[in-house]
Each structure stands twice: as C-alpha cells, then as structure tokens.
Write a structure and sequence with these properties.
The protein is of the alpha+beta class and 473 residues long. It has 17 helices and 22 strands.
C-alpha cells in the first residue's frame, strides 16, 4: 500500500485524460499530486467549443448518446444537469446522385431488414437484392469478425453500402464501411449473427438485423416504462458547449496542468514507479493519448501491448463551421449526409441551429460541414479558404441554400479518429491482458473500446481505478 502522498501522471488532456484525473482525485483524495501533461496548447482534445458572434459552437464532437444513462448521471454529478439540452427531433436526409432522400429510420446503422426501410434511396435492383437476402444463408462462426462494408455489399449490394451505411458511419469514424470491422463498430449485429449461428438457424443479414431491431424495440419500451412514459432522446449536448464540461472537470480535480509539454517513452524505475521524460517521476501513470503516441510512450514498459496499439489506424478530418445572418431557405432538417456517389467533396452537413433549439434561438443559422475519410486526407490539407469555398458550394448543391456565411471557422483533426478494423475487439482484449501484467500503469482512449463520449468516460474511469487499486495494494 502507498504510504506517502502519491504522484500520478496522466498523459493526455483530452476527455479521457481529464476524466481519468478526476476519478483519481475521487479515489486518492485531495493530497495526491495529479499531473496532467499534454503537448497541445489547451485541454479538451477533440472536444472544442469556439466562440462565434452568436455564442459558442462545437467544432469537434457535437453531442453524446443520451441513452447511455451512465454518461448523463456523470454529468449531473459534476453539477451540469442544467446545461444538458435535447435536439429538436427533426430528421436528417441523404444526398445521393439521385437527389435528396429521407434518412432510412428502421435500420441498424443503415443496414435494413427489408427494402421498405430504404425507400427510393436504392434502385429497384438494389431493393430486390435486399429482399432476396433472407432466402440464402451464409456461414458465420460465433466470435468471428468481418469488414462491414464487404459483408453488406456481398449480401445486399453496393448501393446499400455507398448510399446508406457509409454516410452514417462517416461522421463517427471518418471511414468508409468497407474499412470497418463489424464486431467493434456494430457489436449488436455481431452478437445477433453469433446467436443465429449458435441456435443452428439460417444465418442471414436481414435476419440478424430484424433480431437487433426487435431487441431495440423491447429495450425502448422498457426504458419508456421506467421513466413513466418519458422518452429519452437519442442525443444530448451542453447549452454552452463542451467547454463547460472541461472546466468542471478541471475545477473538481485541481491538477497540476502542464500544457505544451512534450514527453517521451515512460521508463520503469528500479526503486519502483516510473520516470516520465519532460514531467518527472511518478508512482503511477495513465496514458490517455491517441494510439501512435500511446504506443511510443509504452514501448519500454509494455512493448507487446504497444506494438498492438501502434497498429490502430487513424483518420483525419476537417470541420467548417459557418454562421449565417439569415436562415431563410435552409431545409427544416437536422442535416444531410452525402452518399459516396453524391459527387460532393463534403461528406455531411449538420444544420446545428435546426438540430439544437438553443442554437436556433440565437437567430440566423449555424451549419457544420465535414470533410475527410480514412486513407485520403487531401481535402483536409486544403487551405481554409478552399475548404470554406467547398463547404459553401456543396451546401448550395445539396440544399439550394446559397446565402454567403457571415462568419466561418475551420478546424482540422489530424489523426483525430481511430479506424476499427476487423479483429479490433480481439486485439484490444490482447492489449488488456498484456497491460494487466504491468503494475501501476494503464492506457485508455478512443482507440480502445469506442470513440464516443460515454465510451471514453467509461474507459477513463476504468484506467484510473486500475492504477488507484495498484497504489492501495
């Protein structure tokens, strides 16, 4: 057991690092020295609120999945209940070569159980492929993994992948569905396929989707019943931006915050604990950085784990936030996703002031345009002026809204999002086993078990508990 006041270094000042530090403060008390170090100029990582003339606007993660009650409870415990706001409920659309279409609703991340769900977004030939899929089973071994886009294209045709599935995944991973593993990105679907195979039933994609949709309906009914008929929104965000969350975490943790600090490989000390170059000695360390940096930091203390973490690919993206003085002509939707065959440079637009009533109350309009996909960062490398021109032009093409923006902001996220390849979950299981062999150090982040806000919070608290438990042993 630790007999002196412990010193813990948290490497990374994004959401994962800040939550880990906060959890360490809860576990270790006010006397523990908690150092947060990050080479960036300001804390928050991929959570970033910028101030426009009408108020704060998100240029990183925009919201979190509200059905994750654990995340909402965490924010409420931080005293931020009055900051949580809900979306308008307006639907999104999809822009493809055939024009604008309603967003398919009764799907599993765009994968339908029947052609009825996709409407006219898919051709008659594509609809026939969807409806015929249920009649021909395929081989699936429980526990296996495959690339999502490849399986959907094989079973339902390329149109479903390019016009529905990839647009839905583009904002979460900045990656086409062809480059994403099923088990890590749509675990419910993988489990449904496992269940069909284990039951000796015919394994079909539509059958697995229908099983997931049925389970989802039952879960929603139970959730509504538990809340007295009150429906929980899919998403929530913060009225004054994610900046309030970052501030709340720092205020409650009171760390020694060292921004602009470059660090190197963590070195184990003969006397126990670790030396962190650029920071100093520590009794324990939490690594909460992007995958390539985490791999480098861990090389001397957990070489095999570092090797696996270093193989996680990253995708770069860019967000162009635009404020308009007038919203006349902007569609009454929450946004538009762009199909692969849409012919636009932007992959999506969020009509933030339509989606979020608190932004709409400011007057005018706020629109976010997103660019970039895994394997191609050519658009992200364009100048601010070029990206803004593309955003304005593509917005006009997709919606007819051609009002010049009064204010713009360009945010690039180099290597901002991890790509979950087939086998990612199994690889992370191996990382966890290897890290368990190293006492006093833990790693967490969007590359590990999920890129969303709730997943990063859960992962951060797990990592903090791991090192706190080691200090008390």
């Amino acid at each position: 057991m630790q007999e002196t006041t412990p010193t813990i270094v948290v490497l990374g000042a994004g959401l994962t690092g800040l939550v880990a530090a906060h959890r360490l403060r809860e576990r270790l008390g006010p006397d523990a020295e908690i150092i947060i170090a990050d080479p960036a100029d300001e804390p928050g990582g991929k959570l970033r609120s910028v101030m426009m003339e009408s108020g704060p606007v998100e240029v990183g993660a925009e919201a979190y999945l509200a059905f994750r009650a654990d995340a909402t409870e965490y924010f409420e415990q931080l005293g931020l209940a009055d900051q949580l706001v809900e979306p308008s409920g307006l639907p999104s659309t999809v822009y493809s070569a055939g024009g604008t279409h309603p967003m398919p609703r009764d799907t599993v991340m765009g994968i339908p159980a029947s052609s009825e769900a996709v409407g006219d977004l898919v051709s008659d030939e594509g609809r026939s492929l969807i409806d015929a899929e249920v009649h021909t089973s395929f081989t699936w071994t429980p526990g296996e993994d495959r690339l999502l886009g490849e399986l959907v294209a094989e079973r339902m045709g390329r149109e479903v992948v390019d016009r529905v599935v990839t647009p839905l995944f583009g904002g979460v991973y900045s990656t086409r569905a062809d480059h994403l593993g099923i088990r890590a990105t749509v675990p419910q679907l993988a489990h449904a396929l496992d269940a069909l195979a284990a039951d000796g039933a015919d394994v079909t994609l539509t059958g697995a989707v229908e099983r997931v949709l049925s389970e989802r309906r039952e879960a929603n009914e139970a959730r509504v019943a538990s809340t007295g008929g009150v429906k929980v929104p899919v998403f929530r965000t913060f009225r004054d931006g994610y900046a309030v969350l970052i501030d709340a975490l720092l205020e409650r943790t009171e760390p020694d915050l060292r921004m602009g600090t470059e660090t190197g490989r963590i070195v184990p000390r003969n006397a126990g604990g670790f030396h962190v170059p650029g920071v100093g000695d520590a009794d324990a360390v939490v690594v909460a950085t992007p995958a390539p940096y985490a791999a480098e930091l861990l090389e001397l203390v957990a070489r095999d784990a570092a090797g696996i973490i270093g193989n996680v690919d990253l995708a770069s993206s860019a967000v162009v936030a635009m404020r308009f003085d007038d919203d006349a002509g902007l569609p009454e939707n929450s946004g538009v996703l762009v199909a692969v065959d849409g012919g636009l440079s932007a992959k999506a637009f969020t009509f933030s002031s339509r989606k979020w009533p608190h932004l709409g109350e400011r007057g005018g309009a706020i629109v976010r345009a997103s660019f970039g996909r895994f394997g191609d960062d050519s658009l992200v490398q364009l100048s601010d002026e070029e990206l803004i021109d593309l955003a304005v032009t593509d917005l006009a093409t997709a919606t007819g809204f051609s009002t010049p923006p009064a204010e713009t902001y360009v945010q690039r996220w180099w290597g901002g999002l991890p790509r979950y390849d087939a086998g990612h979950a199994e690889a992370m299981d191996a990382v966890d086993g290897l890290m368990d062999e190293v006492t006093g150090i833990a790693a967490a982040g969007a590359w590990h078990r999920g890129p969303g806000v709730p997943a990063c919070i859960t992962d951060a608290r797990r990592a903090a508990d791991t090192v706190a438990d080691a200090l008390f042993d």
